[in-house]
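Tokens for chain A. Residues wanted.
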């Protein structure tokens, strides 16, 4: 190994260890939303097919879940595929669907998922997805439905505006059927009809790749979330980058209007 690289690696590990120690002493977010951006650009810069970038992104998610478990983060919601992503080439979409199918089945059968009590839920317009993916979703959710130590929400065919419209329609039907009075519609009622209705809103939303927008992700739930934008592509996102995001969150004062 090159001596200079060895020195850099040693310094990096020492800094990571120190930062981890500091972060563990602070407030840890209960729920983190992640916009996993940059897979395709990562692949393009390395002259790889876009699918290879998505595969690397899948591997990175597994790493990040381990980092969350180490810190005690209990809920992760990741933006995997938006409704707008269907506009991509047919070949890329089909390969992504296949990757989702494989990933969900592997996760459901993973002993670490069982050991750590991970509950998997897919949020989004699952009714428009191919049958093979619907079946993989059903399999993963059914196999992990009794786990309650850690919640992993995977947003597929998801759109924040669509989620809110869907909630409004469900509430309107209840009003029409006489099951709910208009005067009884509150923020809590709306929240209950969202995909994440039984979970607390995200404390922190993290996006990689340098883009500084939320791209229709958790629009209702992110009203009081802290945001952190990283320039790193998702497949190259490091533990030290993750710890920096958590530390930035800890250094902010969340007043909730007070």
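Reply:
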């Amino acid at each position: 190994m090159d001596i200079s690289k060895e020195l850099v690696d040693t310094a990096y590990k020492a800094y990571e260890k120190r930062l981890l120690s500091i972060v563990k002493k602070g407030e840890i977010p209960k729920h983190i939303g992640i916009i996993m951006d940059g897979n395709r650009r990562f692949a393009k810069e390395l002259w790889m097919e876009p699918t290879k970038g998505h595969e690397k992104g899948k591997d990175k998610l597994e790493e990040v879940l381990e980092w969350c478990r180490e810190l005690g983060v209990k809920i992760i919601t990741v933006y995997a595929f938006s409704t707008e992503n269907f506009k991509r080439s047919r070949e890329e979409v089909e390969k992504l669907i296949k990757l989702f199918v494989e990933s969900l089945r592997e996760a459901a059968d993973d002993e670490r998922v069982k050991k750590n009590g991970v509950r998997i839920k897919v949020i989004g317009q699952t009714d428009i997805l191919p049958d093979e993916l619907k079946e993989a979703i059903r399999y993963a959710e059914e196999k992990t439905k009794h786990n309650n130590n850690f919640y992993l929400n995977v947003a597929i065919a998801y759109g924040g505006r669509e989620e809110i419209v869907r909630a409004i329609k469900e509430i309107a039907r209840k009003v029409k059927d006489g099951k709910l009075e208009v005067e009884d519609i509150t923020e809590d009622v709306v929240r209950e009809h969202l995909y994440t209705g039984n979970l607390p809103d995200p404390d922190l939303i993290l996006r990689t790749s340098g883009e500084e927008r939320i791209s229709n992700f958790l629009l209702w739930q992110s009203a009081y979330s802290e945001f952190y934008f990283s320039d790193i592509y998702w497949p190259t996102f490091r533990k030290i980058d993750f710890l920096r995001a958590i530390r930035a969150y800890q250094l902010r004062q969340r007043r909730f209007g007070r």
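The chain has a mean pLDDT of 94. Residues 84 and 152 are 22 Å apart (CA to CA).
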